[in-house]
Specification:
about 500 residues; alpha/beta; 24 strands; 8-stranded parallel β-barrel
Amino acid sequence: MSGGSVGSGGASAASHGGSPGSSGTSSDSGGSGSGSGGAHAGGGGASSGIAGSASAGAAGAGAGAGGMINVTACSTGTAQSADLTVSLSSLRQKISGFGVSSAWSGSYRNASDADYLWSTTKGAGMSLLRIRYGDGLAIAKSAAMNGVVVWMTPWGTGNNGAQGGTYTTTQTNPNGCTNGSMPVLTNASGLASALVTWVQNAKTQGVPIYAVSAGNEPDSCGINSTTSFSAAQMATWIETLGPAMANIGVKLMAPETQNWYGFPNYFTAIQNDAAAYKAVSIFAGHRYGLGPDSTNAGVVAANKAIAADTSKEYWETEVDTGTGSGDSSGDGITSALLMAKQMHADLTVASLNAWHLWWVYNASGNGGCLYDTTTNTWTKRLWVMGNFSRFVRPGYMRVSTSGTVPSGVLLSAYTNPADGTVVVVAVNNNTSATPVSLFVSGAAPCTVTPWVTSASDNLAAKSPITVTGARFSASLAAQSVTTFVGKP
C-alpha cells in the first residue's frame, strides 16, 4: 500500500501507477457485470484456526458437525413471480473470513478496540487479521485470543530494520521499474530462515500464524521499500519459502500484487512452475485500480484456473475503496456503501474465499480505514463489514440466488452447513426505502432477524420477520446494508 487516499467515487490506482478499472456489481441474481463466476469450494480441509470447510455433498445433504438439519414447516411453499430465490442446495465457494490489516500499528489506540473489531456480539466480528513482519504483536495477541486467524506479510527493507536486512540488495530500476532504487532479494534461504524464526517466535508469544505471504505488492516498484520481484523471481522465491513454511505447518500465500492488472502474469509464472504452484495454498491480490471481478481476459482465465483447483483458496487482501459523494471524511454511509459494492462483486463474481480492507487506523478522508484517527470515531465501514463478517462465519458457504433484483440493490446469500443457518446480505444504494421479497429454497427458518447499518444505525437488530411458506418480505432502509439471519 502506498498510503495515498483514493479519490471520490471508487477504487483508483492509489498512486501505484495502474490505470483505473471498473468494478462489476453483479450477483447470481442478475446484476450487471461478469467474471469467472465458477463454483469454488476452496481449500479442502482447514487448519490453524480457520473453521473447517464443508464439501458440497455434506452441505447439500443438510448434514454437518451439528447433525441433520431439520426441514421446518416453514420450508414448504412456492416462489412468487417477484421473489428473489435463495437456493440453499446450490453451493458456491467456502468463506474463510473477512479482515483488516494492523500494519505499522502494533498496539490498540483504545482499550475497547478489540470488542469493536473482533466481537460477534458487540462489534464487527471480523475473523482475519493481516499483520506486518516486524511489527509488535499486541493487536495480534488480542485477535488470536478472540479466535481470529492471524497471517503475516513481509514488505521489504527499510521498515524498522526488520523487513529484509542482509537478504536483499538495493538495485536501480530492476524488473522494468523506472523510479529509482529498491531492494531485490539476493539471499532467499537466509530470508526464508528468518521468516521461520519470526513465525516460531510469534507462536511462543500466543500468536499462531496461519499463513505467510511471499511478499507485499512485488510489482509496486519499491513503494514503502517493498522488495521488487518479477513474476519469474516470485516463482523462484516461492520454491524456497514454500517448503520452509510447510515444515512448520504454515500456509503460503502469493503473489499479493497491487491489483489484478499484474495478477495474471504472476499467477501464470507460479502455475508454470510445478514446485511453486504446489507450495501456494492461497492466491491473493490487492484491489487498487482493477479487481478480481474484472472482465479482463487474463483475470477471467486466472479466476477459472483457481476455481478449478479446490486445493487452493482465493483472497483479496488489501484495498482502499474511496470516499463517497458528500462524505469528505470518508466516515459515513455513502463511503461504506462503496466498500460494500466491491465486497459484493468480489464475492459473487470472482467467488473469493476471503476479503480484507486495508487498515484499522487512519486519518479523515481515507477510504481504507475502520477507525478515523482525526475524529477518534469508528467509521461506517466497520459496521458494514460487520454485516458480512459477524454473520458469515469461516466455513459458511455462499449459495446461489436468482430473480430480478430491484434496481440499486445487491443481494448475496450464505449458509452454515453445520446447522443450516441462513444469511442474506442486501445492499441498498437507493436514497429511498426499497421493498424486497425472498423465497428460501431448502430448509427455511421460521423467522429471520434483520440487522441494519445505515446513516442512523450500526448493526442494529430489528424486529424478527416471520417466514411463511418459505417466503418473507422486508423494506430495505435507504442507503443501508441489511443482513437477514435465521436458523431452521
